[in-house]
Each structure stands twice: as structure tokens, then as C-alpha cells.
Design a protein that fits this description.
323 residues; alpha+beta; Phosphorylase Kinase, domain 1; 5-stranded antiparallel β-sheet; 3-stranded antiparallel β-sheet; binds adenosine-5'-triphosphate; binds magnesium ion
Length: 323
């Protein structure tokens, strides 16, 4: 990994001037590059930020927790690149304490926005979208090949289209060719098991959840949300269901055909049952509902904490997510 010259003082200044409600308006402005379900990715302070994409993690309560997270973050990145054979953009993390809060900033080389899956699918012709889908399935297969061969490790992955980017010459004016190479971006939730034991503390997922919902999420969703990333078939369903969110519903039947052909021909050794339209639809309805409720509840929590109890709210939330 090339060395990064991170301007720690810039990050501290950014943090001191940050209003999580208006991240773009601080003394050192942040420019939002993308929203995930849980976190926000942004550039900091234009040129001074050094062409990096940052993800701010304000979730740690004590140093031990941060140390544990940093260890598994690096191990997950290493497993994916060295063992599985995925390509991840050059990356790293820095952590520090500012204003009594423990912070970790993950960073990655900033990629052209149009090269990222959820943008690229709107820019290339339909046959190339289907090809991109197949290339993603091939990357995913590497994970399950590794899992089958490994006695000690089991790796989970979030295959969403927004977690992949076209690399190299296909990135600038996006095009998908059979030889196109993909980058995997979303390594901030290190999902892997060592001798059957989940390495991430699932409680960390709950940190940014509103306190009035924590018990409910723990009870209803946590186990499902974590385990689905270890199931090839469910990861494929999740990826297909993404095209609803991307307003490309018309492509879903073709994507299901593509996936089932892939499972029958290229990945027949995994004996994955064909995916049906009904499953994709009901999965999407449930998933969209979970995340919409979740974001709504977090906004209510933010309102309580900034306006009513005035205890302060440290997370940057997406404005509105089109579904
Ligand atoms: N290196 C990068 N360069 C440019 N944009 C990026 C980069 N990494 C992420 N993004 C943008 O930010 C979005 C969210 O990033 P990512 O998938 O890593 O986070 P996330 O989905 O919020 O993660 P999680 O679901 O674990 O919270 C991406 O879909 C992409 O649009
Ligand atoms: Mg993501």
C-alpha cells in the first residue's frame, strides 16, 4: 500500500468546525461523495484533502474498542485482497481524540464518481449493465470459493452495486467490457468469522441507532442483517433488488435470468437454487421499509438530541434516499 501523507491537523480542524447537520458549511467544508445506508463518504477541504474519500466513524466509546475495530478493518482488507483476490483502492485510516470524542477516519483514493456502480449503470447501454452485473457476480464468486477452501475463515460481503467501481481505462467515460476490472469499495464493516466467531462487535452497528430503537433492532434485525452477507444467494438477491432503488425496475427480469444462468453454468458447483421474481420483490419491500424506518427514526433521534435534550448529535445523516 503506498504511503499516505495525511494532514492530521486538517482533520482536527474539520472536526472542530463540524456541524453534523450541515457538513458542507463548516470552516473546512466537506463535499459529500456518497451516502450508504449507515455512513457518509466525503472529501475534506478540496485541495488540502489530497484527493481522498473519507468516511468518519464517531462510534467508539473507548480506546479498546477503536483498537479492536482497527485490527479487524485491516485484516478484512488484507483477506479480501491477498486471499480472495479482490482489488480495493489504496486506503488507510487515522484516528485521534478531539473534543473528548474518539474518532476514526477511514480514507480511500478518490475515484471518479461516474465509475461507481450506481452511477455507471445509468451511463452505459443496457447490455453493458448486464455485463457489469455478471462481472460483479464473478467477483462475488471468489469470496465463496475462498470460504469453501478455508477452514479457519469465513468472509461476508455487501455486494450492492454502489460498492463497486470500474477501474483503470473504463472509469473516466464509463464502459463495461468483458475484460473490465472492478474495485470493491465498502470495507468499513469488516464482516468475517474466524473459527465460526464473528469478528465485529455487532453492538458497533447499533451505535448510530437511536437509543429508543436499540432493543428492537437487536431483537428483530441484527442477526438477519449480519448473516445475509454470508449467503451467496441472498447477496445476489440484494444486488438485484438494488435496481429498484436505482429506478431501473424494468431490468429486473433480465438480471434474474443473468443470475440464474450464472448459478447454473459458471457457478454450478455452488448448487444455488434459482432466484424468483417474487423473492426479489418481497426482499426489496422489506429491505426498503427497514431502511426507511431506520433513517426516519435516526432523524427523530437527531431532533430530540439537538433541540430537546440538547445532548448533541454526532452523526452525519443522508438527506433523503430515493427508493
Ligand atoms: N473511494 C471513493 N471515491 C469516490 N466515492 C466513493 C469512494 N468510496 C465511496 N464512495 C461513495 O460513497 C458511497 C458510500 O460508500 P461505501 O459503500 O463505502 O459506504 P456505505 O455504503 O455507507 O457503507 P456502510 O453501508 O458500511 O455504512 C459509495 O457508493 C460511493 O458513491
Ligand atoms: Mg456501500
Amino acid at each position: 500500500m503506498p504511503g499516505f501523507d495525511i494532514d492530521l491537523e486538517l482533520l482536527r480542524e474539520f472536526e472542530r468546525g463540524l456541524d453534523p447537520l450541515h457538513p458542507e458549511a463548516g470552516a473546512i467544508p466537506a463535499h459529500i461523495l456518497g451516502y450508504g445506508e449507515i455512513s457518509t463518504v466525503f472529501e475534506i477541504g478540496a485541495e488540502r484533502g489530497g484527493d481522498l474519500a473519507y468516511k468518519r466513524m464517531p462510534i467508539f466509546r473507548e480506546e479498546g474498542e477503536l483498537g479492536g475495530y482497527r485490527r479487524i478493518y485491516h485484516e478484512y482488507n488484507l483477506l479480501l485482497t491477498q486471499q480472495v483476490g479482490l482489488t480495493i483502492p489504496p486506503h488507510g485510516e487515522v484516528s485521534f481524540t478531539e473534543g473528548g470524542r474518539i474518532l476514526c477516519f477511514l480514507f480511500q483514493e478518490k475515484l471518479p464518481p461516474q465509475s461507481i456502480g450506481n452511477r455507471a449503470i445509468h451511463l452505459v447501454p443496457e447490455p453493458e449493465v448486464l455485463l457489469l452485473f455478471r462481472l460483479v457476480m464473478r467477483e462475488l464468486r471468489k469470496v465463496w470459493e475462498f470460504n469453501r477452501a478455508s477452514e479457519r475463515f469465513e468472509i461476508g460481503i455487501d455486494g450492492q452495486i454502489s460498492n463497486w467501481a470500474l477501474a483503470g481505462p473504463d472509469a473516466e467515460a464509463p464502459q463495461v467490457r468483458p475484460e473490465s476490472r472492478l474495485l470493491y469499495l465498502d470495507t468499513s464493516t469488516p464482516l468475517y468469522r474466524v473459527e465460526g466467531e464473528e469478528q465485529i462487535d455487532p453492538e458497533l452497528f447499533l451505535r448510530s441507532a437511536p437509543s429508543f430503537l436499540v432493543w428492537l433492532i437487536r431483537l428483530l434485525f441484527l442477526k438477519d442483517v449480519v448473516t445475509r452477507y454470508y449467503d451467496f444467494r441472498l447477496v445476489a438477491i440484494d444486488l438485484i433488488a438494488n435496481f429498484y432503488k436505482e429506478q431501473m425496475k424494468g431490468l429486473i427480469p433480465a438480471l434474474i435470468r443473468e443470475a440464474n444462468d450464472f448459478f447454473a453454468v459458471e457457478a454450478s458447483d455452488f448448487k444455488v437454487r434459482p432466484i424468483t421474481r417474487k423473492e426479489v420483490d418481497s426482499y426489496y419491500r422489506e429491505d426498503a421499509l427497514i431502511w426507511r424506518l431506520y433513517l426516519g427514526a435516526r432523524k427523530a433521534d437527531r431532533f430530540l438530541r439537538t433541540r430537546v435534550t440538547r445532548t448533541g448529535y454526532p452523526y452525519i445523516l443522508p438527506d433523503r434516499v430515493e427508493r
